[in-house]
Each structure stands twice: as structure tokens, then as C-alpha cells.
Amino acid sequence: MSGFDKVVQDYAQAMAGLTDNMTVIAGGFGLCGIPEGLIAQIQKMGTRGLTVVSNNAGVDGFGLGLLLEKHQIRKMIASYVGENALFEQQLLSGELEVELTPQGTLAEKMRAGGAGIPAFFTATGYGTPVGEGKEVREFNGRPYILEESIRGDFAIVKGWKADRYGNVVYRHTAQNFNPLAATAGKITVVEVEEIVEPGELEPSQIHTPGIYVDRVILGQFEKRIEKRTLSQA
């Protein structure tokens, strides 16, 4: 393959360059569409003092919860943290710094970061603790607060298919935060279920163009269900 081939052969190569005190943006929502193998590699590396940006912190013993177990996360920027008892313990003890962010605002922080937009105004959070200390401007008679965008040293993303050039397709609800996270990393690593040759992906179906992606790895996924609900039939 040419120099455009972005496929790496193992997780050590995929996360090479990650060091203590970096910022990692992680795709996924709950346990849906999370980069399981990349998270496990970070745990294996023992990297500490991380700032992690993600919709949530996984659950006890899985997803980003693995990094909490090893006390590798210093600060968590998230919109929902209700499924992780260890997260709650570390927050209340003061061990873990937490920046709670409205979900839509968090998504836009990632998108704006990837688009090179340093900040934006939103009405969400005005008049609440979220807006305290932030610049306020009025547009069309409505107050808005200034929110800064987010860029990460690494973005870790879970895709369905990718070609060797890094073009990525997501499957169904795994499109959650993954496309946004993919644009916002200085180094973006995508873990996928299938790698195909260039030209096999229909261009109109590509969600993340390869220009945003630095590394692609073929992963294996447990795809754990966060909450199993069964009918009473």
C-alpha cells in the first residue's frame, strides 16, 4: 500500500505517543459505540493524570470505568455520570475533578473544536450553575453564554467499517458522539469491526473522511449491554 495506508497492526501502535496528563476525547454513548480495545490499551499502558472528554464515564468495570479503577483519570468532562458508582465515590472524595456539561453543548464543543472554531454562544445553561462566570451576550432579545470548544491530544473512536485511507462508516446509533470526537483530536485513532480496501466504501455513505483520521485498527468488541430490558410476555 502507499503512504496513505493508516492501518496499524496492534494496540500499542494505535496508542503510541499517549503520555501522562494528556486530554483524550472518547466517542460513544453509554456503552454503545465505545472504543473498547483502545480504552483497554490505555489501562494497560498505565497512563495517568488524564483529562477525558466523553458523554459519560462508562460503567463499573467496563468502558472508561476501567480507567477509573486504576485512578488514571484526573478530570472528567461529561454530560451524564449516573451509571458508575466508582465515579460517584471519586467525585465525592475530591479525587476526581468533574466538569458537567449539557449534552448538546458537549457535542458542539467537539464539533467546533474539529472545525477550528474556538468558542460559540449558546442559550443552554444560562441562569444556571453551568453559566456562572461565563461571558453573556444578547441576541434577538435572548441571553446566551460563551462556551469554549474542545480539542484533544488524542481522540479514540469506534467505527463499523473503515478503508485503509481512514474513511469511516458508523453503524446505526454508534453515530452518537463518534463523528464529533473524530474531528477533534490532534491524533485520531479509529477502532473498527471491518477494514476494507480503498474504493469499497460508497463515498456518499462515509461519515468521517480519512483526512481526520491518523490510525485505524481492526478491533474485537464485546458490545456489552448497559441495561437489559425483557418483556413480561
- The total count of helices amounts to 6
Any guess at the CATH architecture? 3-Layer(aba) Sandwich
Strand content: 25-35%
Can you say what the CATH homologous superfamily is?
Answer: Glutaconate Coenzyme A-transferase
Which value, in Å, is the CA radius of gyration? Answer: 18 Å
User: Could you state the order of secondary-structure elements as H and E?
Assistant: HEHEHEHEHEEEEEHEE
Q: Could you say how many structural domains there are in total? A: 1
Under CATH, the topology can be stated as Glutaconate Coenzyme A-transferase
The CATH class name reads Alpha Beta
- Helix content range of the residues, please? 10-25%
Question: pLDDT below 50 for ≥5 consecutive residues: which ranges?
Answer: none
Estimate the global geometry from the Cα principal axes. globular
pLDDT averaged residue by residue: 93
Q: How many DSSP E strands?
A: 11
Major β-sheet profile: 8 strands, mixed
- Determine the N-to-C terminus distance: 54 Å
What structural class should be given to the helix and strand makeup?
Answer: alpha/beta
